[in-house]
Write a structure and sequence with these properties.
228 residues; Rossmann fold; 5-stranded parallel sheet; Arc Repressor Mutant, subunit A; single chain; 21% strand; elongated; 41% helix; 4-stranded antiparallel sheet; alpha/beta
Length: 228
């Protein structure tokens, strides 16, 4: 389904990579995989994932160095990184976390626990993906019941407008380009003209306006759209 979180699995052991990818897809996530750090960095630049599961022991460039590069990059530092390692010493865990990893799991690990930790990270960065209630000002979206209200009045939205609003509510104030909205709302493998974004933004504005209040969506000339 378009809009599901994209998780990048960076693991050089094929069997572990396939098991992880299988379990993540079974949970409904989009999955990309890489067996080396340089490939992972290329994938991140091409299509930034919502979260990275990163093995420490990689050929050529270590996961620790990949994590350092990601966390010092302006466009990648906010991507959560869960590091996997056979290194169980506390000093190694500290090194991993100090390099910027958001979480650290020691091999062998429980896939169920890893999935739980992934949900925890996504709850922080993409709350709409894990069924939270999102709100901004007088607008509220209950992801579990699939309901939107404004000033206490129910707002009727089509599925595309609903996903657009969820993206805005996850990051109020952030300016989203049309291409970024296409990726997040329509999906990365779907070709849709960028003008389609403008049409659905118009429909979302109309639906929110019907419940009263000022237009909460801001047009940023030459850049895109933002909530608030």
């Amino acid at each position: 389904m378009p809009g599901e979180p994209l998780i990048l699995v960076v693991e050089d052991e094929a069997a572990q990579r396939e098991v992880l990818a299988y379990n993540l897809r079974a949970e409904g996530y989009e999955v990309a995989t890489a067996d080396a750090g340089d490939i992972a960095l290329d994938l991140v630049r091409e299509t930034p994932p919502d979260l990275i599961v990163l093995d420490w022991m990689l050929p050529h460039v270590s996961g620790l160095e990949i994590c350092r590069q990601l966390k010092t990059g302006k466009d990648t530092r906010a991507i959560p990184v869960i590091m996997l390692s056979a290194r169980s010493e506390e000093v190694d865990k500290v090194r991993g976390l100090e390099t910027g990893a958001d979480d650290y799991m020691i091999k062998p690990y429980s896939v169920a626990e890893l999935l739980a930790r992934i949900r925890t990270q996504l709850r922080r960065t993409r709350p709409a993906a894990v069924g939270e209630v999102l709100s901004y000002g007088d607008i509220a979206m209950d992801m579990t019941e699939h309901r939107v209200s404004r000033n206490g009045r129910e707002v009727s939205l089509g599925p595309t407008e609903y996903r657009l609003l969820a993206v805005f509510l996850e990051r109020p104030g952030r300016v989203w380009s049309r291409d970024q909205l296409l990726d997040r709302v329509w999906g990365r493998d779907v070709y849709v003209d960028t003008r389609t974004v403008d049409v659905h933004i118009g429909r979302l504005r109309k639906a929110l306006g019907a419940a009263g209040g000022e237009d909460p969506i801001r047009t940023v000339r030459g850049a895109g759209y933002a909530l608030g």
